[in-house]
Write a structure and sequence with these properties.
The structure is a single chain. The chain is α/β, with parallel strands linked by helices. It folds into 2 domains: about 140 residues, Rossmann fold, CATH 3.40.50.720; about 190 residues, Rna Polymerase Sigma Factor, Chain: A, CATH 1.10.1740.10. About 45% of the residues lie in helices and about 15% in strands. A 7-stranded parallel sheet has the order 4-3-2-1-5-6-7, with helices on both faces. Strands 9-8-10-11 form a 4-stranded mixed sheet, covered by helices on one side. Strand 5, helix 5 and strand 6 form a beta-alpha-beta unit. Helix 13 runs parallel beside helix 15, helix 14 runs antiparallel to helix 15 and helix 15 packs across helix 16. About 50% of the residues are buried. It binds magnesium ion (MG). The site of magnesium ion (MG) has 4 residues, from helix 7.
């Protein structure tokens, strides 16, 4: 009998969480210990009745009573509040965790998982963008592995299997370039939220879709790659690859390139993280023949047109809490854009203003990065673009 692995899913009702449940349902061999959601109590209750976790958590306490009633008559513990996910990460028994939470809320659960020495399949890039220094240090002590669930980082992770990191010349993250890749400055300045929410290749949450359109998402991924693979920003490049078939590349010091390719489907990186170091049959595998692929072209990024990517590189160079400030300001700027308060190009203006307004400090505690995030947010909330 193969052993059943116990899984905790943080962000279970989101895009990564629902696809993770599809993958484990199709693969079999897993039980669920924790399902953790932000506010969608109805969907969480539906998932809980199907999977019978030990505990469900809801960040938004306003849904607590309804969730508790929906799960009446079961043994499932229901806990709500801002700290509920991190508390479950600390208290409940599980063998591997998936973190698909959005934004800062993912940081504490990641910290608790790594503190216990448990492996973490990580889709919440903010955990590393904000807490990369802290989590890498902790990981080295506890032996927890961070398995990337981001298509680019999963690609690099797969390319590096069997290789030595000192043999790497550079990593090349691919970017679809978002919907405005070919637009000129005047057109981009009039982009509406509806236009920005239409991503050509991937179906994702609203924040990451806007971040893909500004290329801030790629900037956060550069920072994430730095922490995952231990390489400096000078060895991490970005190329526009519009068709999202090549999910990223590694070039080695002898000049050889390795890449991971395939149709875009997040269920593959999820499965790779869960089955590492082995591989299993992909239950959703469709015919994917290279002769059907479009031509594989690559282009450099125009940093003048996409200043958010430049700002993310700058934050990584500055180090410490600078990426936390960058991300905090970006989260606020994106939500202000989605609320029609500011224009699309104002997102980068706000982030740059926030980064210039406060100095970075060492990112050596959760409190330090949370304070930097709050400072970035506060400045971005007040800033009125001229
Ligand atoms: Mg990605």
């Amino acid at each position: 009998m193969p052993e059943i692995r116990r899984l905790a899913i943080f962000g279970s009702t989101g895009s990564i969480g629902t696809q993770s449940l599809q993958v484990i349902e199709a693969m079999g061999g897993y039980s669920i210990s924790v399902l953790s959601a932000h506010s969608n109590w109805r969907f969480l209750a539906e998932q809980a009745l199907k999977w019978c976790p030990v505990r469900v958590t809801l960040a938004d306490s306003s849904g607590y009573t309804a969730l508790k009633e929906a799960l009446a008559g079961t043994n499932i513990e229901v806990v709500s509040g801002d700290e509920a996910a991190a508390q479950a990460a600390r208290e409940i028994d599980y063998d591997i965790a998936i973190n698909g939470l959005v934004g800062l809320s993912g940081l504490r659960p990641s910290y608790e998982v790594i503190l216990r020495g448990i492996d973490l399949a990580l889709a919440n890039k903010e955990s590393l963008v904000l807490g990369g220094d802290l989590l890498s240090g902790l990981q080295a002590k506890t032996g927890s592995k961070i398995l990337p669930v981001d298509s680019e980082h999963s690609a690099i992770f797969q390319c590096l299997l069997g290789e030595r990191i000192e043999d790497v010349r550079r990593l090349i993250l691919t970017a679809s370039g978002g919907p405005f890749r070919t637009w000129d400055h005047a057109q981009i300045s009039n982009v509406t939220p509806v236009q920005a929410l239409k991503h050509p290749n991937w179906q994702m949450g609203a924040k990451v879709t806007i971040d893909s359109a500004t290329l801030m998402n790629k900037g956060l991924e550069v920072i994430e790659a730095h922490h995952l693979f231990g390489l400096p920003s000078s060895q991490i490049d970005v190329r526009i690859h519009q068709v999202s078939i090549v999910h990223s590349l590694v070039q080695f010091r002898d000049g050889s390139f390795k890449a991971q390719l395939g149709k875009p489907d997040m269920r593959l990186p999820i499965q790779v993280a869960l089955t590492y170091p082995g591989r299993m049959v992909m239950p959703f595998l469709e015919d994917d023949d290279p002769s059907d692929w479009p031509p594989l072209q690559f282009a450099p990024v125009d940093l003048g047109k996409f200043p958010c990517l430049r700002l993310a590189y700058e934050a990584l160079e500055i180090g410490g809490t600078a990426p936390a400030m960058l991300n905090g300001a970006d989260e606020v700027a994106v939500s202000r854009f989605l609320n029609h308060e500011i224009g699309f190009l104002d997102i980068a203006r706000i982030v740059e203003y926030a980064m210039n307004a406060c100095a970075a400090t060492p990112a050596d505690s959760l409190e330090a990065v949370i304070a930097a995030d709050a400072a970035g947010r506060s400045i971005a909330t007040r800033f009125i673009p001229g």
